[in-house]
What does this fold into?
Amino acid sequence: MQMQPEAEFGLADARRILGEVFAPWVQDLNLAVERIEHAQPADVPDWQPGALLRMPFSERLCRNGGVVCGQALMALADTAMVIAILAANRGYRPMTTVDQTTHFMRAVSSMDVLADARVVRLGRTMSFGRVTLLSAADSKPVAMVSSAFAMLPGVNALRFDVVNKV
It folds into this structure.
């Protein structure tokens, strides 16, 4: 199966990339892609393409005291932003994180965390985004993240079975 930027990019593609491209330790987070958005609705002028990912609660992700650790939250945000950029690009494109700034707002424990990732600017060489991390139980913000990604050159169409790790 080949993915090209012009091709349709669906939820199944995003889930496949999540399961096949990311490092094994990221896959161990058991993240789930719940939604991708790449087509602007006619009635929403300030809409941005994006993705919604879920990180299920696990004691393995908690620091002392039962609070989900910041490292897991930051990995969730980074991964969600990659999926959002792929959705906006409508296909796989290699990239690397250049910057990620996280503002933690409150602790989260004993519940899933949602990552609502939005592409602020999709560029040829750089892309920028923001992620709001929310507790799944009450939809209140846990953290806000801004990030920048360098879009790597040289790959327009890529077979998933020969893709290098993101």
About this structure: Residues 1-6, 156-166 have pLDDT under 50 and may be disordered.
